[in-house]
Amino acid sequence: MDLKTALEESTIALNLFMNNKFSEALELLRPWSKTSMYHALGYSTMHAMQAAMTFEQQDILSAIATMKEALHTCQRYRKKNSVVESLSSLVSKQGTDQLTEEEMHAEMCYAECLLQKAALMLVQDENMINFLKGGIKIRTSYNIYKECQQIVEMTHNHVKTDVYSQFEGGVKLGIGAFNLMLSLLPSRILRLLEFIGFSGNREMGLSMLREGASVHSLRAVLCVLTLLMYQTYITVGSLILFYTARIRILKGQFESAQQKFEECIAAQQEWRQIHHLCYWELMWSYIFQQNWLKAYQYADLLCKESRWSQAIYVFQKAAILSMLPEEDVKRMGEDVEAIFRRVEGLKQRFAGKSIPTEKFAVRKARRYNSPNPVKLVLPSLEMMYVWNGFAILGKHAELTERMLITIEQAEAKLNKVQNPTEYQVDDECLVQLLKGLCLKYLHRPLQAELCFNRVVQSERRIRYDHYLVPFTLYEMGLLYKQEGDWNKARRFIETARNNYKDYSMESRLHFRIHAAMNSLSNSPIMTP
């Protein structure tokens, strides 16, 4: 595929990605991702973005592997005596003429991939070796960008083809973003970085990004997004603290994470949105610890301050309160039933569509619209599962054991019900799913399988929470994968994907299934 066509297809893929058509974008790029530098760059970048959003170790490792392949692809197109390896070749105008347009683009694509790989390595493991390796890669990437900038300066008066304009736009993005982001670092660190060759000129960075945004190129939209990120999240120090804390949450280091979130909140007062991100994470960290009072405090703050999704915040607040003794709730002046009844009126619509998680919360809260409402069972833990929280909780065995005790107490209470309601089977199945999850993470597979089977066997008796069966089948698949039975894992996950539709949180499950099937595709095939 020639360079012009590759750029055109990559632009189409970027547009698909920006319009939330992630799978279509990846499918467009995948066939050429090992032979075209731009397909390789786009394909690996999308994997890197997924890893950055999830912070899941498997996603990070997958993204690093994909980025490594992209670097190999770009390397094949680089001039053997590459730009960085031969700085003297750029001192004269004749040196730039020795590079073809394809080789110029290869240098820039290589720099972009190298920078992203460095970032992924730093996220993967915060040890000193990765820090040094990442730093070297960042320095190399920056040097390549500087040499590419020299090419642009030396060829300023040349006739600019569309392919050349694409190269120029990429240089403006790279140099502009480097200068802008480095300029936001503390002055003491910036002086050190400038001493070893980096540049942190904010005005220059903003100027280049604005120029890049105005050029018709693949990277114009990325220049715009970088400028928007700067305008929206100028407090980079707070964001660094936030992501440091977030990584610790994902590792199950809850006390340490809570401390970092508190530091992040104290670091600045101008951008309350960052506070709200911290409140959300703090709420969940205290839920994992079953510190319901602290979790309630942050849920209450979100209800009062954030407008992102009032329906979810209010549901979370009521769900947390429902985990506390009734006398404590009354002493706090709260009415759980009244709070649940508020949820439906807070549902939002974007572009004519409801947020799936809000729809789920609204449907669950409708129980309280009845004159004699039937209380939800473990609603806070159910939402924790919806937000994939058990995968985080499961990294902390002691807290998982404590959560299992809470679930078993709810199970015992359900077993003692004298006059079952219409929700009885649904509630029992929910408890079995949650119990099975805890047992899975505690490495008690036979007990977990028994719980999951109880849900599946009750399928015809479930009246409202039909999502429970496909989600349980998916979890059974993961359980079998954990135990090394790849064939059985695939079978159960495929059953969850193919045999069920029109249930709550369907798209969320399909995202999880997609990730699981990708991991299974590289697994050994074993006989039952």
Automatic annotation (TrEMBL):
Record-linked Gene3D superfamilies: Tetratricopeptide repeat domain (1.25.40.10)
One Pfam family linked to the record: Iml2-TPR_39
InterPro entries cross-referenced by the UniProt entry: IML2/TPR_39 (IPR019412), TPR-like_helical_dom_sf (IPR011990)
The keyword Repeat is assigned to this record: yes
Alphabetic keyword roster: Lipid metabolism, Repeat, TPR repeat
Matches recorded under SUPFAM superfamilies: TPR-like (SSF48452)
Keyword Repeat set for record: yes
Biological process (GO), any one: lipid metabolic process
Protein family: Belongs to the TTC39 family.
The name this protein goes by in its record: Tetratricopeptide repeat protein 39B
Organism: Callorhinchus milii (Ghost shark)
Phylogenetic classification of the source organism: Eukaryota, Metazoa, Chordata, Craniata, Vertebrata
